[in-house]
Queue: 4 jobs
Job 1
Amino acid sequence: MIKSQSRPLLFLYIIFAYVIAFSLWWAYLLYCKNELSFKEMIELKSLSYQTNSANKNKSYFLSDDYLSIQNKYERQKKMIMSEGVFFIGILMVGFIFVRRSFKKELTLANRQKNFLLSITHELKSPLASIKLVMQTLLKRNLPEESKTKFVNNSLFDIERLESLVDNILIATKFENDNYGFIKEEVDISYMLHLLKNKYEMNNKKNIHFNFQIENDIYINADKTGLTSVFVNLIDNAIKYSEENTSINITLRKEDDKCKFIIEDEGAGIPNDEKEKIFDKFYRIGNEETRKAKGTGLGLYIVNNIIKYHEGTIELKNNTPQGTIFTIILNTIN
Ligand code: ATP
Ligand code: MG
């Protein structure tokens, strides 16, 4: 059965094959017509040539008249062939472009569909668990310790929802030329210390975090945008790592730049996926086999925000396994 996604492409192939066949047929007809009219003209001209008494015993096929008609015929033959080849060449180039943009649109539409499916799940599951916690707290008189645990879990779910909504809002900003970001002096070291506390307190996978943060590094940046960069990269490192593995996070100054390095021991990213993961909605694997949930917006946002700050982002394999992301930004001190 033909997949519904490839149906428009099949339609495009059929139209293209029809146009090619149609053009070849017309070129062939034109070619035959040219040949026929040449033969008929020669026949007519040779008859009237023979009836002229001045041409007795002379062959028409050696006359100037014949040679000029033959030249014209040859010229037209070449013209039909070269224009035919040129037309089909243009058609082919056009087809390649149309096919490429068609495929791009189809992939984007497919990713968008997956995005909608995953976002529904990403929104529903934390909401359902928050609702359950609220109902339990209302109905039952729980000990103080359990209450705190439940509330903390709900706060964690709310934070997940918050970062999801932030990602969607930031991603929509990129659609407009004016991102709406405001640059100000940011103490990036302090910002990372705050995140360090947050992640160490909510460490469900028992990750061994190793933060090495050099103090007092200032950059000119959009606070929300930059927080989103760190949150997305740390979230990814946790999400794509197994329990009890290590994540090293380093921030240091090098001349007038600062380097943020995050190293995990997770599944790693295959070489042929390394560029694609920065595309909007792109996620490695397919929806059926993927374990971790997500929208595919995280690295798209990271890449765009880093570009906006005139920084660079680099991606390498960790040894023996995992990924290392390095971000370089300009400092102001
Ligand atoms: P979300 O928008 O919720 O962040 P996501 O994590 O799937 O969803 P991205 O952060 O854009 O989306 O990442 C794109 C893909 O890159 C992921 O689906 C994952 O397959 C891969 N990836 C990203 N970071 C890592 C990592 N540290 N280790 C292994 N794979 C990763
Ligand atoms: Mg992510």
Job 2
Amino acid sequence: MTEPTRILLIVTGGIAAYKSLDLVRRLRERGASVRSILTAGGSEMVTPLALAALSGEKVYQDLFSLTDESEMGHIRLARDADLVVVAPATADFLAKMATGLADDLATTVLLATTAPVLVAPAMNVQMWAHPATQRNVKRLRGDGIRFIDPGSGDLACGEEGPGRLAEPVDIIGAIETLLAQPKPLHNIRALVTSGPTIEPIDPVRYFGNRSSGKQGHAIAGALARRGAEVTLVTGPSVQPPPPVACLTQVETAEEMLAACREALPADIAVCVAAVADWRVKAVHKQKLSRRNGQPPRYEMEENPDILAQLSQTANDRPRLVVGFAAETEDVVDRARAKLERKQCDWIVANDVSDDSNVFGGDSNTVHLITSQATETWPRLSKEEVADRLAERIADALVEPTARP
Ligand code: PMT
């Protein structure tokens, strides 16, 4: 493996689990780091100590472990991986995955990960051939899960036929092929803003908004997966950050602008953050008190417009500047007007009116607006919106004429 690769290995309860030890050894020989999750069934077959000794990493087993959750957390475990490998995957585990169950650490992490997933099934020949198992495999393939199919031969149960876990060396081959997928944004620097900004009123109070950072973080992750060197500048967010080259956490619009300037030069800028348009002119040094009985009045002043500044900067203008527009009426027309006023290249318009559940929600319906056209995408998860947008960005940068 040419680049440092972080593999998250899930070992489930099949007799072939012993081969996972060899797999870990070989992966480490090739320079990968391996974290492991052992399911309850898996721990009947191999010990956590053996996996920990070979991987040189702690082995995770329990979704509700206070220590593990405070040290690592299942979401970070899911996100800090370039690839998740399930080897061996039992029939039961495939059924859980296909149904989207999340009743233990392994299944929960699989729902939370944004990394590609490679599954190496192993089971009795009849169990593998059973229509239920094949239905689950088909469904998972449809969900984008990659498989290295079981080999044929003598099985531990005494029967013969397909069901043997693929050999570790073949699983390694599948991993290498998967990770060698083209990275169209290699050598491209991307700046992504995400989350809200918060503007202080006094030492304890602030004006903020409902942005969770989900959409911006997903876009940063999608660009990074395509090889971009991503700087993610984010306002306060509980959303775990994706693996990016540089993460800068800020609070106010002015801090966000400074961090964005610092990140230049960049080839791409995607401004997803919900930046506060105004801030309190004179922030109170002491906590405002109720004692005088009158509700406070705030004099506001305008914040800098980060998207407009990035679009209009004479030096270091990114080759492609993409804004987002959060609108509650005349969504496309208002977003197009913003594109023209701020002079970005593309703007992604989303309807954020009351019942849309876009702020903080998991899905989004967007319109991609360029100077020439408007495309309306169906309702998609924020990850899917991110992937589509990253693909479009890659197309535009690889083929400059595609740029609006
Ligand atoms: O974070 P989530 O919960 O996942 O929600 C995602 C989202 C709704 C925040 C996101 O999809 C979105 O719409 N982001 C833009 C929110 C916004 O501030 O929209 P706007 O129409 O007010 O601003 C237009 C553009 O100008 C945006 O790119 C914004 O980043 C930028 N802007 C705005 C004001 C300002 N002072 N500086 C800016 O750069």
Job 3
Amino acid sequence: MEQTDIIYFDNAATSFPKPMQVYDEVRRSMLYGGGNAGRGAHRLSMAAARKIFDCRMIAADFFGCEDPEKVVFTMNTTYALNLAIKGLLKTGDRVIISDLEHNAVYRPICALARDRGIKYDIFDTGCKENTSDDKLCEGIERLIRRDTRMLICTCASNICSRTLPIEKIGRLCRKRGLIFVLDAAQGAGHISIDMKRMNIDVLCVPSHKGLYGPQGCGMAIFGDGIECDTLVEGGNGYDSLNVGMGEMLPERFEAGTLPAPVIAGLCEGIKSVMAVGVEQIAAYERALYARALEMLDNTDGVRVYAPQFAGGVLLFDLDGFTSEQVASELDRYGICVRGGYHCAALAHKTLGTRASGAVRLSFGRYNKMSELEAFWRALRSVKDMR
Ligand code: PLP
């Protein structure tokens, strides 16, 4: 099957395709900037370093961070979250998380509960009752205790389109002296994020989803006054005679060779999102969502979860089939969707889909309305197999 025959509704896993300028820049960077950034002062090394710095500047600007040196490149969002969680929480600390967290947050928190005796509380995002933002924040306030040190939550769910009131949560964290870590794996590029205005202390984002960069990198972007331990130590060409990683950002957290071509591609991905506009992209995804919802509502045996939250992610199941069966049958028609649990056991428990998982459609800016018609035809054929 040709790539052009494929209908890709799995953008929450990773966006596809990427803007052409991303592919072009990765290639250009490998051909003309193939040195190792920070490991030498020759022209190829400097060319790679310049690209990396360009990306820090663009990312800082895009996310409202005043200092590009606070943009730390990581392997992915998971690594950025582990850095913030394990580098900031100490034995005996308490942390608040949401009931929609991905395993990228939930698992490191559970590991620290086991290894460092940290405790965690879970706040209700009101997915079922459509709780107001103020009520959600009141729920968080009730969980804050003397030893609560951090709040970490997702910006938007990866299994439904629930977006959390980040600005209000950030304001509350600032007022109550909590470190605010935001998992923006599903928010970046879909929601406008301003670290300063939203009081975000550490912002964790991927290259490869809503920013339309390549896979292989993410970012942990630090706010002011955050003192975080390292997760990994090693060389980076900076202060090599010191046995420690030093205090300077970004070098403190960037051990080992950075994926310069990937970062160069990410830089183009962010520029392309800026050129189209986050609001524009989100509005288009909502239009796709509305049409898909209308189709699913008109299909017997389909149940949609949390349909009240319109956005880029839609979760459903089909009577008589497991979610994995639906996903693999759709794949026979060239339609890529994801079934199962989406690495989000806690979120599936919240939506009541923990027993069986569900099918996720996730839209991106390159999806077309006509692709939804093809999806609907295929889904009805799958249904008729029963
Ligand atoms: N957080 C959320 C909400 C996600 O949806 C994902 C990935 O799907 C992650 C974290 C992990 O992102 P990455 O695969 O870049 O580590």
Job 4
Amino acid sequence: MLYLVATPIGNLGDISARAIETLKRADYILCEDTRTSKVLLDYYNIDKKCVSYHKYNEKEKCQAIVQDISDGKEVALISDAGTPGISDPGNVIVRALIDHNLPMSVVPGPSALINAFVLSGMSAPFTFIGFLPERGKERHDLLNRLSSSTFTTIYYVSPHKINDFFVDVYNAFGDRAVSVARELTKKFEEVTHCTLAGGYTGVVKGEFVVCVEGAKIDNNAIADETIVSELRELVEGGLSKKEAVATICQRYNLKKNYVYNLSLNI
Ligand code: SAM
């Protein structure tokens, strides 16, 4: 069995009892960086063999891990912070275990994107992007594709790239509301609410997650008849009028008053 164990993103207290128990019980622990993980493992008196598993060796390590799990071993995987597999090594071994029909499970816990999204005050649905491609066509094309999405988009951004991020996203999206979460769960945690046009003027140090509001849909772009017919469908499906209005507002990013007035037709 492989356990993908979530670990703190800053505050060492943010780990579950089951995560500690799983790490203590495992035959060995795969660590993104054994030195980084040692701090956490020492803090919780977990004295266990650690094997390095990072993006440069994950492919070559896979075969041995697959073999161990086939042999019935319990293996835990942790990354430097947060949930393994989210912009962290983990995806390759998960794929390999799916291919070999072997068991795995996540021991859940922190992930920076969740804290940042909650603190942004922006609405779901959201799309998690993680790190943007560094530069060039790939970055440009991805931003262009995202520019028409009405979903909130969430990015991991290194501190030295935060200013470029604002410039490039503004060029692709135009002006939007932004929420910059820095040093989540740590002593200097802060969230700055600003705009792409205004840029980020806060402290450029530490770790960042940036949420960008989705594109607004022009109320005139969707026919009123479509809205009324979808409202009717939702109400016939069992939602109250109020719930149906809220669902349509979220679905198309429309103003509540506008949809409420249309709902008077059903
Ligand atoms: N797997 C991790 C997770 O579940 O959040 C993410 C790992 S990714 C390699 C590291 C990036 O996550 C950082 O560059 C930063 O963008 C974000 N991050 C991690 N910890 C953070 C924190 N405490 N505050 C803000 N951002 C954080």
